[in-house]
Amino acid sequence: MKALCWHGRNDVRIDNVPDPTILNPRDAIIRVTATAICGSDLHLYNAFIPTLMEGDILGHEFMGEVVELGSEVKNLQKGDRVVVPFTIACGQCFFCKKTMWSLCDNSNPNAGMAEKMYGFTPSGLFGYSHLLGGYAGGQAEYVRVPFADVGPYKVPEGLRDDQVLFLTDIFPTGYQAAENCDIQKGDTIAVWGCGPVGLFTIASAYMLGAERVIAIDRFPERLQMAQKFGAEVIDYEQVDVGSTLKEMTGGRGPDSCIDAVGMEAHGMTLDNLYDKGMQMARIGTDRPHVLRQAIMACRKGGTVSLPGVYGGLLNMLPIGAAHAKSLTFKMGQTHVHRYLPILMESIEKGKIDPSAIITHRVPLTDAPDAYAMFKNKTDGCVKVVMTP
Ligand SMILES: NC(=O)c1ccc[n+]([C@@H]2O[C@H](COP(=O)([O-])OP(=O)(O)OC[C@H]3O[C@@H](n4cnc5c(N)ncnc54)[C@H](O)[C@@H]3O)[C@@H](O)[C@H]2O)c1
Ligand SMILES: [Zn+2]
Ligand SMILES: [Zn+2]
Fold first, then answer.
1. Could you report the per-residue pLDDT of 48-82, keeping only the tens digit for each?
2. Ligand 3 centroid vs 303 CA: distance in angstroms?
3. Phi and psi of 154, rounded to 5°?
4. How many CB atoms lie under 10 A from the CB of residue 13?
């Protein structure tokens, strides 16, 4: 089959690779009908996540048709159309039982590697390095889905692929980011980053009762989309973000601040240039510029929520400010399984059309160009959907 494989920094290629096969009785093989590139894939493309190997198949946002089933998968049938959570979860461990699916104890066969870095391992993820399981991803014609009796979720009749594809990751991710803020009536939420995750965070914050959402980015097309989702916007290249947020909130600061940017923040500020230097020299792992801003901007007693991914150790984090202001921190990979049913329902009822953020639709064979475009944000690119 054809699959998008990683070959090093800024180098992904369409390769011919062996078709996946059933390895365990709880596996399914899915014929992929739609797959997307995620901001998280850029951390791999830019080689900031360790333990990728040449030839690894990328992709964790995918859906398709069930074509083969292991003997223990009783809830699916060949021909079913399913969306597949990017987090792989067994459904039976301590964490899965508490619906903390992205923390599943049984889905990372390379748990020892993650334990060395993090103390304990999170769940395995599709197409996301050997540290997180070494699973082949879904930017391919076919993919093996482990624990298929737990993850894949059937798509109701009448919904198109492009309407439900983002239930695999970014819509639940935006929703969890907003839910983590425990939004109260009248709240103002600030969201850094108007990429796909930021946009679904804005939409979710309103779904959960926010009065105002203020969104921050620099790309006009992304800021315009944020406005379409109801946000007031700040271009961080035009104004000082901290003082603008203070002014816009009567001097008190946003009730919650959401970092939907993560480890590769842009910006020519001193702190970010310092982080960039450290990252280039491979003595730093992350660029937490946005997180610093979010901590400083947040009102006293507020919440800082981090859907944006961080990988390692952070420098110059204003933890003193966070402590002095009694901030709450919430973060993590998304418990996709937890949110899939309610968000599927919101799409079915026509409350939201996730396909609105798609700017590019291309065949999978164009994936290498699509990665470069999505990374450099050229051609107004916000979200790419690919069909094998
Ligand atoms: N927690 C999860 O489970 C989960 C799931 C999906 C994605 N993510 C993470 O969410 C983040 C965003 O993903 P995405 O797909 O939207 O990526 P993206 O690259 O399309 O969007 C990031 C946006 O941040 C903006 N940005 C950069 N620096 C900024 C700054 N200083 N201030 C304000 N905005 C800034 C960029 O202009 C861009 O629009 C990534 O870190 C990704 O890994 C996490
Ligand atoms: Zn993703
Ligand atoms: Zn589990």
1. 999 999 999 999 999 999 999 999 999 999 999 99
2. 28
3. -70, 140
4. 12
Given the structure tokens 């420098």, which residue do they identify? 315
Label residue 118 exposed, middle or buried (CB < 10 Å: 0-12, 13-18, 19+).
exposed
Q: pLDDT tens digit string along 339-368?
A: 999 999 999 999 999 999 999 999 999 999
Buried b or exposed e, range 49-83, using 16+ CB within 10 angstroms = beebeeebbbbbbbbbebebbbeebeebeeebbbb
Residue nearest to atom 26 of ligand 1 (CA): 193
Calculate how far, in angstroms, residue 38's C-alpha sits from the geometric centre of ligand 2: 4
User: Could you tell me which residues are beta bridge partners of residue 189?
Assistant: 213, 256
Q: What is the Å distance from ligand 2's center to 196 Cα?
A: 9
Q: Which helix (H) or strand (E) holds 374?
A: helix 367-376
> What torsion, rounded to 10 degrees, do the Cα atoms 26, 29, 34, 36 define?
60
Residue 283 dihedral angles phi and psi, to the nearest 5°: -110, 0
Ligand index nearest the alpha carbon of residue 308: 1
Q: What are the tokens at 227?
A: 């406005």
Instruction: Please give the Cα distance from 156 to 109 (Å, whole number).
Output: 33
What's the angle, vertex CA 302, arms to CA 200 and CA 118, rounded to 5?
70
